[in-house]
Amino acid sequence: MARVTVEDCLEKVDNRFQLVLMASRRARQLARGVESYVEFENDKPTVVALREIAEGLIGPEVLDQPVMEGWEHDLETRRRRVYIGEDDIADEPGFRDAEKSRAFKPVRDEDEQPGR
Predict the structure, then answer these.
(1) In whole angstroms, what separates CA 84 from the centre of its chain?
(2) How many whole angstroms separate alpha carbon 41 and alpha carbon 21?
(3) Which domains are present in the chain?
(4) Averaged pLDDT for residues 6-18
(5) pLDDT tens-digit profile of 44-90?
(6) What pLDDT was estimated at residue 50?
(7) Contact criterion met (CB below 8 Å) for 56 and 16
(8) In angstroms, rounded to a whole number, what is the distance separating the alpha carbons of residues 38 and 93?
(9) What is the 3-class SS of the chain, one letter each residue?
């Protein structure tokens, strides 16, 4: 399927609201590494999700599935490690580089300039 439209998907789904919920849930799953039923073909997860729905490969049951098994627990565990101060997360590859980047530097009052 070269191009997917909402009308293609609505042939398989009852209404637009359900389509939005299904497509967003499936796109999140795909973005987090769940295997797709169609080839990605340089498409974004949202487009792939819509293609799967239009082809009848994904149905309303996707709403009952978690975005990805265990990812919520893993994320919470990583947050606790940072706040508790455990050092093992700092040993992960790339952590020190990210820590040095501007995105991870705390902003101090004296760093802020008017008009920025």
Answers:
(1) 26
(2) 23
(3) 6-64 (3.90.940.10), 71-105 (no CATH)
(4) 93
(5) 999 999 999 999 999 999 999 887 654 555 555 555 555 555 555 55
(6) 96
(7) no
(8) 32
(9) CCCCCHHHHHCCCCCHHHHHHHHHHHHHHHHCCCCCCCCCCCCCHHHHHHHHHHCCCCCHHHHHCCCCCCHHHHHHHHHHHHHHCCCHHHHCCCHHHHHHCHHHCCCCHHHCCCCC
31-65: burial string, b at 16+ Cβ within 10 Å, e else: eeeeebebeeeebebebbbbbbbbeeebeeebeee
Amino acid letter for position 53:
I
pLDDT of residue 110: 57
pLDDT in tens, 100-113: 554 545 555 555 55
